[in-house]
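Worked example 2:
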Amino acid sequence: MTGNNTYEVVVVGGGAAGLSAALVLGRARRRTLVVDAGEPRNAPAAHMQGYLSRDGMSPAEFLAAGREEIARYGVDLVRDRVVDADRDAGGFTARLAGGPAVRARQLVIATGLKDELPPLPGLAERFGRDVVHCPYCHGWEARDLPTGVLATSPLSVHQALMVTQWSKDVRLFLHEVGEPELTDGDLRRLAAARVTVVPGKVAELVVTEDRLTGVRLADGTVHAREVLYVAPRAVPHNDLLLKLGAEMRETPFGAFPVIDERGLTSVPGLWAAGNASGFAEQVVNAASRGHRAGAAINGELLMTDLDAAARV
C-alpha cells in the first residue's frame, strides 16, 4: 500500500471473489486496494475441483497466482483485517487492524464464511482429507469407498442421497437426528438408494496410520468407513455488511445480504461477492461473482463521473 490511502475501490477479502473483482478493476485502470486477512475457507483442502482449467489445483497455488495477476495491473494488496467501516456522502472509510484508515468510493465485501464443524473428537483434524462436506468437491476422489454421512439435521438425508452418485456403500449415521424426524418420503428415498440408516450417537472417529478407518458409536459398535461427509454450520463473515446497514435475508445457512444480479447490496456503493453473498458459492462461482461485481463497479464509477461532468 502506498502513502496515498484514497482509492476508487477497496475490496475486503483476498479469496477467489475478491481477487477476481480486483483483477477486472485493475484492468479497467481503477485505483484498487485488496485487504486480505489470509483466512480462506478452503484452506484445509489439498486441492479444488470443478474449476475448468484449474481442476486439481491447490487452493494456495490458486490464490498465489491470483495475487501475482492483480499486481500486474497496479492493484495494491495488504495483509490486514478491516475491523470497522463507515459510509458518508463521499464514499466509505475502512479502518484496518494494523494500519491507517483507507477511503474508497466503492466497497466490495468478499470476506466469505467459516465452516463450524460438529464437536466430535477427531473430526476437525481430518476435515478436508477423509472428512469432507461437498460431493462435487470430493466425490470423485472418494468414489466407491465405504462412505458415511454424519447427520446433524434432517437436511443430512439429502446429503446422503446425493453421495450415492459416487458410492453405493453409504451409511447415514443419525447422530443428532431422531428416527421419528425422518419422513416417510425420506425413508422411501433412502431405501431406494440403498442407504443404510444407523441410529444412535457417534462417539468418535477411528483413525489408523493417519487414515480414517471407521466410525465408533456411543455403544462401542464400529462401522468400517473410509470417508465421512459432514454438514458444517456456516458462519458468514457479515459484520461489515451489518455495520453498514445492508438489508439481510435469513437462510438455513445464516444471514446473507440482499443483492441484485450484479452483487450490489441495498446500500449504494456497497457490494458483496463470493461466500459473503451466499452459502453455496464454490470457487468457480465466487470468481464469477467477483468478475461481475468488478465490471459493474467500473460502469457505475464511469457513469457517475460522466454525469457529474455533464452538469458542470
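The helical segments are 16-27, 59-72, 123-126, 135-138, 156-163, 184-192, 239-243, 283-311. The chain has two domains: 6-115+233-311, 118-229.
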